[in-house]
Amino acid sequence: MSTKVLIKLVSLLTALTCTLVAIFWLNQGHMSQFWTSLGFKNQHLNWCEERVSSLYFYEQNAKLYEKSGEWFWQGQTEIPLDYLRVEKWFAQYCQIPFEKVEAPLIATRGIPVFEALFLDNERLTLYTDTDGTFRFRDEFFKSETLRQAIKELLAFAPKIE
C-alpha cells in the first residue's frame, strides 16, 4: 500500500471518528456545556426529553392529551385537534431559550401552569410567580419564548369551545 493511500485512509478514519464523537456529544448535551464554558450564554431548556402523553392546564382545568395517534383537548367537552399542528408545536417548543435567575430567598411553590405526563409515566409540573419567573425541576428562570408558547398552545382549542 502506498504512503498516499495510507495517509488518505488515516485521514478519513480520523474524520469519521471525530464526526461520531461530535454526534454523541450533541445527543448527550455536552456541546451546550462546552459553548457555555467558553462564555456563550445561549442556554436552552429541554423540558420534554421523553415524549409527552398529556398536559394538564391548572387554570383552565383542561387537558391536552394523545389517544390512538390523535391529539385531543378535554375541557368542558372533548375536542379533536389538528395532529400536525400540535406535533409542530412540540417540535418548536420542547427546547426553549431561557435566562436563569437566582432562586428567591423564600422559595414558594408558585402558581402551577401545567403538569406534563410523559410516556415513561414521569410527571413534571411547571410553576410561575407573579413576576414572570418560572420554576421547573427546581430551576428558576425567565423565558418569554415559553410564555408565548403556552399562549399559542392554549389558543388551539378554546376557540372551538
Overall description:
By secondary structure, the chain is of the alpha+beta class. It has 4 helices and 11 strands. The strands form 2 sheets. The chain has a 9-stranded antiparallel β-sheet, with no helix packed on it. Strands 1-6 form a two-stranded antiparallel ribbon. Strand 3 and strand 4 form a beta hairpin. 10% of the residues are buried. The model has no long low-confidence stretch (mean pLDDT 84).
How far from one another are the termini?
74 Å
Work out the number of β strands.
11
Main pleated-sheet profile: 9 strands, antiparallel
Number of continuous helical runs: 4
Class from secondary-structure proportions: alpha+beta
Instruction: Name the average pLDDT.
Output: 84
| Order of helix and strand elements from N to C terminus | HHEEEEEHEEEEEEH
**What is the 3D form?**
elongated
Instruction: Give the amount of beta strand, in percent.
Output: 25-35%
The value of Rg in angstroms is 21 Å
| Biggest β-sheet: strands ordered side by side in the sheet | 5-4-3-2-8-9-10-11-7
- The portion of residues assigned to helices is 25-40%
Low-confidence stretches: none
